[in-house]
Amino acid sequence: MGASASRGQVARIPAPEPEPEEAALGLNQLPPELLLVVLSYVPPRTLLRSCRHVCRGWRALVDGQALWFLILARDHGATGRALLPLVRSCLPPARNGRLCPLGRFCLRRPIGRNLIWNRGGQEGLRKWMVRQGGNGWLVEENGPAVPGAPSQSFGTSFRWCLKKEFLDLEEEGLWPELLDSGKIEICVSEWQRARDGSTCVYRLLVQLLDANQTVLDTFSAVPDPSQQWNNNSCLWVTHVFSNIKMGVRLVSFEHWGEETRFWAGDYEARVTNSSVIVRLCLS
């Protein structure tokens, strides 16, 4: 006897219809004025290194002035409020295919920032042009704290040691019309300290130069030699270049030091927190 088995039919259930997706709105579909607002919240480094290379439209926005004015307008401090009208008055006309000077300005933020990168030996002697005397320059701990200075300083030896740095103000983000506006000043300063129990001499020379390295203005400080028992005395040397002449494009910052007892290994005329700061004339 055979039993017959019925083979069941598997019912096919139709898959649900996918719900229609809302069309994604790309940034390029935004009106240009809204896209400018969005891009103004992107860090300047990203704007210049990435966004500028997305397409021709984005490049035109990044190269133009409107985007950078939006970024500058968010600084509501005293400097920011003074900066915006000054920039409007001295910004050169836009040129097709060239980045607006405000791009580098917003990237570098040169106003109110110390333009000397290695101000106290955090990176050894990098960025400095050096002439060694005696045992040469040494980076050492400050010992007693120096107000506002890094924990390290540069020390000189028993023969004259010289250190110099050139600052290109245009490379730092300042453009010629702004430099020649008569509305900025340059403040230079440095802490100098002598070790207790020794004597030393020190000199600071700062020069403002044009693009051909012609000297337009000079500040020189030659304090009296330190006495042997000086209780680790500190001296703050500072000067403000105001009424800056037309054509200033470079700053030369150099200092010398020498331990005058000529003891090998005794590092004196320690200097730290070397500073060059461009400021707006707010008065």
TrEMBL record:
Membrane-crossing segments per the record: none
Record-level GO BP terms: ERAD pathway; glycoprotein catabolic process; SCF-dependent proteasomal ubiquitin-dependent protein catabolic process
Domain FBA: 105-280
Source organism superkingdom: Eukaryota
Domain F-box: 24-71
GO molecular-function terms, A-Z: ubiquitin protein ligase activity
Cellular component GO terms held in the UniProt record: cytoplasm; SCF ubiquitin ligase complex
Keyword terms: Ubl conjugation pathway
Transmembrane keyword on record: no
Gene3D superfamilies: 1.20.1280.50, Galactose-binding domain-like
Protein name per UniProt: F-box protein 27
Organism per entry: Otolemur garnettii (Small-eared galago)
